[in-house]
Amino acid sequence: MKSLIVSTVFLLGLLGLIYTVNYLYYRFSPVHSFPSVTTLSARALLGMFISGVGYFGTLFCLVSFDSELRLNHSVSLQIYLCIGVFLLLIAAIVGIFRYDKGVWLRRNPNHSRLFLPSWNEGSKNMGVSISKVDDINYGRGVSFSWFDGRFITAGRHSVAFEYYEYNFMAHRSIRKIIYKKEMSFNFKAGAVYVIKIIPERQTFQITQDTTVNFGL
Fold first, then answer.
1. Which of 35-52 are b and which e, b meaning 16 or more Cβ less than 10 Å from the residue's Cβ?
2. What pLDDT does residue 71 have?
3. Cβ count near 156 (within 10 Å)
4. Where are the alpha helices (DSSP H) in the chain?
5. What global pTM score does this model have?
6. Any bridge partners for residue 182, and if so which?
7. Predicted confidence (pLDDT) per residue in 124-136, tens digit
8. What is the C-alpha separation between 70 and 89, in angstroms, rounded?
9. How many angstroms separate the CA atoms of 18 and 169, rounded?
10. 85: pLDDT confidence band, cut at 50, 70 and 90?
């Protein structure tokens, strides 16, 4: 009985921590969404794969030779090594995204910036995403995912927007599509656009914003 109470209290505390961290993230973080791997080039994806293999391979070596390492090094040093390897992985991922972004921008000097909204409503995270651009899944090649949105090549495109909700507190957290709509729009080079939802009409509004820094 005592163990059941302890487990229940621990679970409730963990759920409370997750809820609090998520709330603080959406309340105070300058960005609400991160770049997605869905628009990365094949070379960048290969780099991500190699980085992951290198990371887990290094951890495997540290665990496999744990007994030998303890003969010469302290436990704290092993912890520092693990943290260092993890930081190197993060640096590699950030570097790959930034490099691939630079390549995409050089190949597409005439482009626009789209800001996709995302926010929190209690136990649900709401937002807008793009599933296709010109019938290309995730708009790979003609767009590039970045913080709070993406870059897209200038010109007229048919973009499939999705309004979704994600219940991060549910036992099986899945993203639920509330509605989606495909819209054709002529994006001007150097312009910034904000996507707004119109739930009562189940559609979206694409509005140019002259107050936002294009280079963000």
1. beebbbbeebeebbeebe
2. 47
3. 9
4. 2-28, 42-64, 66-72, 75-107
5. 0.85
6. 160
7. 999 999 999 999 9
8. 24
9. 8
10. confident
